[in-house]
Every structure is written in structure tokens, then in C-alpha cells.
Amino acid sequence: MITNGIKHVFFDLDHTLWDFDKNSALTFQKIFELHNISVAIQDFLAVYEPINLNYWKLYREEKIDKSNLRYRRLKDTFDHLNFNVEDSIINKLSIDYIEHLSSYNHLFDGTVELLEYLLPKYQLHIITNGFEEVQLKKMTKSNIAQYFKTITNSETAGVKKPNPIIFNHALTAANAFPNESIMIGDNFEADILGALEVGYDAIFFNIRNEVIEPKIKQVKYLLDIKMYL
């Protein structure tokens, strides 16, 4: 089913184009070595990843701030593992994690090929809840920044996806209308439902094989987006 009338394609960044889990794992490996944290990285990640997702949900819902997210996700993980780490070290780890995260630049398979395919036909944009100081670094170092006309992040918009304000903010920045726009992302609530609420079309990058309504467009591989665009 080809999507007609679309002129603007909006992407989420983390977990959609930029392989957050792979890059994050490499970052933790590096900073644990720097601080002599003797936790097996796979044991750490098995506990950390669901905790981190939960804290990001709280962050989207304005229930915690950025500093608490960065601290609590580490503190809770170490506590769960019964591994004692002083607060001063946790705070340093949280800073170093952000500092080093953008030094890794793994993208999902098909990212560059898809962007090359879309660029002649559409204007491409980013809408991200990620932190402003990190997202552009990620895009620049992974050599995808040049594909995008605008980058909207939650810190400049003042709210986070799925709040309609950030989607409208992105439309204004792109000089676009909802009925000529489509959102592609991996978070069903934040990316897909948020975009649909404002009047965008949407494609769910269903990398985790979630069960969703059949009427929602979805793909499991980025290059399958060519079926729709």
C-alpha cells in the first residue's frame, strides 16, 4: 500500500535509525573499564535496559527530570545487582556515559540505503526525545546529519513525544502540514499514537515484535519502508 500525498518524512532517531542498544553497550563497556567497575556487561545490561525504558517513560510523562533519569537508572541497576557503587562514582558514570555515547556510531541495517532512497522524493526530518547536546553528535558522527532538513528535540520544543506540541513544533520547523507528513519510529505510544493524534500518517518500526492493531502500518526491517514510500 503506497502512501500518497506525503512530502515530509519524520524519523525518530534512537532505536529507529541509530542502534542505541549496541552503541550503549559499547559505551558502558568503555566507562566501566575507565572506572574499574567489575560487573559483567551482559549481566548489567539485562537489568539496566528495562529499568532505563521505564525511566524514559517517566521522563516522557514529565514525572522525573533529566538529572534524575541519568542517576536513577544507574543507581537502581547497581542496587538490583547488589553491587555497591558510591554516589560520586554513579554521578561520574552518568556524565561519562553521555560524553562517550556519541563516539560509537552503529546504525540499523539499511539506514543509509533507505535515506538515499527517500531523499530525492521527500524532505526528511528528525523528532527525538533525546537530549539536545547528544543527538546532533550522534547524527554527525554516524554520517547521517546531512540527510535531514530539520531536527526537533524535546528540550527545544519544551515537551516530549507523544505530546502534540512537539509534533506541531516539528511541522512548523519543516513548514509542513500534518496530512502531507508521516512519522516513523519504534515507540508505539510516543511515535505512532502521538503522530496519528496530530494528523500525521505513521509507520511503526516494530523491531521488538509487539502486537499492535492490524490497521497500523508496520515494518520489521527499515528497507521494508520502501513498500509504503
TrEMBL record:
<dbReference type="InterPro" id="IPR052550">
    <property type="entry name" value="Pyrimidine_5'-ntase_YjjG"/>
</dbReference>
<dbReference type="InterPro" id="IPR023214">
    <property type="entry name" value="HAD_sf"/>
</dbReference>
<protein>
    <submittedName>
        <fullName>YjjG family noncanonical pyrimidine nucleotidase</fullName>
        <ecNumber>3.1.3.5</ecNumber>
    </submittedName>
</protein>
<keyword id="KW-0378">Hydrolase</keyword>
<dbReference type="InterPro" id="IPR023198">
    <property type="entry name" value="PGP-like_dom2"/>
</dbReference>
<dbReference type="InterPro" id="IPR011951">
    <property type="entry name" value="HAD-SF_hydro_IA_YjjG/PynA"/>
</dbReference>
<dbReference type="InterPro" id="IPR006439">
    <property type="entry name" value="HAD-SF_hydro_IA"/>
</dbReference>
<dbReference type="InterPro" id="IPR041492">
    <property type="entry name" value="HAD_2"/>
</dbReference>
<dbReference type="InterPro" id="IPR036412">
    <property type="entry name" value="HAD-like_sf"/>
</dbReference>
<dbReference type="Pfam" id="PF13419">
    <property type="entry name" value="HAD_2"/>
</dbReference>
<dbReference type="GO" id="GO:0008253">
    <property type="term" value="F:5'-nucleotidase activity"/>
</dbReference>
